[in-house]
Amino acid sequence: MIFRILEDQYAQKSQEAKATDLRFMQLALTLGRRGQGRTWPNPAVGAVIVKDGVIIGRGWTQPGGRPHAEPVALAQAGAAARGATLYVTLEPCSHFGKSPPCADAIVAAGIARVVAAIEDPNPEVAGQGHARLRAAGIRVDVGLCAEQAARDHTGHFRRVRDRRPHVVLKLAVSPDDKIAAVGHRPVAVTGEMVRSRVHLLRAQCDAVLVGMGTVLADDPELTCRLPGMAKRSPVRVVLDRALRISGNSKLVHSARTTPLWVMTSSLSEAPAAMALGAAGAQVLRVPTTTAPPPGLDLPAVLHSLSGKGITKLLVEGGSKVASSFLAAGLVDEVWLFRGVKDIGEGGVAALDALPLSAITGSPDFVQRASEAIENDTLTIYERS
Asked: How far is CA 209 from CA 168, 245, 311, 375, in A?
């Protein structure tokens, strides 16, 4: 609701001015998305600098979170930035971290006006960046495309407010709501275009998580295998309470090229942890839950990942892991891919003991979007 109020206030501007601002803010949002999955623990921000209707600087947060979008755009604009307008998808920072405040750089560059999509909830910023700009005589307008910006920065917002990543659950199911054949035998539920879309989704997330059941059944790599995007692969996270993962698995074999974090209990064997460490994986110990079924404490898992900087987590499988996250109320968004061919009797249910209607028919989730991908479909739900 607050995003709608901000946008309604912004709508009071003249239609011509609003249309111009909207065009440049949409470009800034598009630029910001280029950094998704690569900027953690920082948000993926986009910035555009415009003077006399001409774009003179563009920038987005660089891999690892530095430099920020605003200094990149200011460097490109150079001396021409004086008197220009800066469009930015998130409030410029006002505190000293690994680099000086962006707000100070904006003031020093002589920017005359800043159009920011939304305020940063980070307590170290939280309106102070906008206040610093206004104190320097810069006109600041806030709220244009606020709802879209909030969605783009949802991982950053979730980590700041809830001390956990934003959780996206991905499911690929048959028309009869199955994800695998009898005995967890892998089957191609959806087509090649969906698989490409999943690889792109991985690239847009900081980390991808599976349980040991998926590792044992599929021996996955969990990388982004789109052409030219191998370096966009997320951190791979495995829930492995007893450290059963094999040193011969594809995940362990690739641990030195693509990060692998194995979440385990404090009771798992030290020699197994040392062997994983020697192979290049990180072993992270978290508490276990006392309630049945036994397993790792999922809130503790998410808190640990947040502490390491993860802002957006893709949960890919399997059915028990998916149902556990869902039952714990820890799923914020669902990407439901549906194929066209039934798997049949004895197939593995998508959500273990839970029906798929726990998502599709639940008041906890609302449908945000739906589209056809060749013969398959994608429906996106978000927590209401």
From this structure: 10, 14, 13, 27
Closest to 134 measured CA to CA, from 108, 101, 107: 107
Q: pLDDT digits over 242-292, tens only?
A: 999 999 999 999 999 999 999 999 889 999 999 999 999 999 999 998 876
Point out the catalytic residue in the list 70, 91, 119, 316: 70
State the Cα–Cα distance between residues 41 and 97, nearest whole angstrom.
12
d(CA 328, CA 240): 18
Instruction: Verify whether residue 70 is a known catalytic residue.
Output: yes
User: At 119, is the pLDDT very low, low, confident or very high (cuts 50, 70, 90)?
Assistant: very high
Beta carbons of 221 and 251 less than 8 angstroms apart: yes
What's the maximum distance between 2 C-alpha atoms anywhere in the chain?
A: 69
Q: The pTM is what?
A: 0.92
Instruction: Check if the beta carbon of residue 272 is closer than 8 Å to that of residue 241.
Output: no
Instruction: Work out the burial of residue 346: count CB atoms within 10 Å of its CB; fewer than 13 is exposed, 13-18 middle, 19 or more buried.
Output: exposed
Q: In angstroms, rounded to a whole number, what is the distance separating the alpha carbons of residues 251 and 231?
A: 16
| Residue 290 CB partners (closer than 8 Å, separation 6+) | none
Asked whether the predicted pLDDT for residue 13 surpasses 70, the reply is no
Helix 102-109 / helix 69-77 crossing angle, nearest 10 deg: 20
Q: How far apart are the first and last CA of the chain?
A: 12
Closest CA to 221 of 187, 172, 260: 260
CA–CA separation, 178 vs 181, rounded Å?
8
Specify the higher pLDDT residue, 26 or 127: 26
Q: How far apart, in whole angstroms, are the C-alpha atoms of residue 105 and residue 321? A: 45
In three-state secondary structure terms, 48 is strand
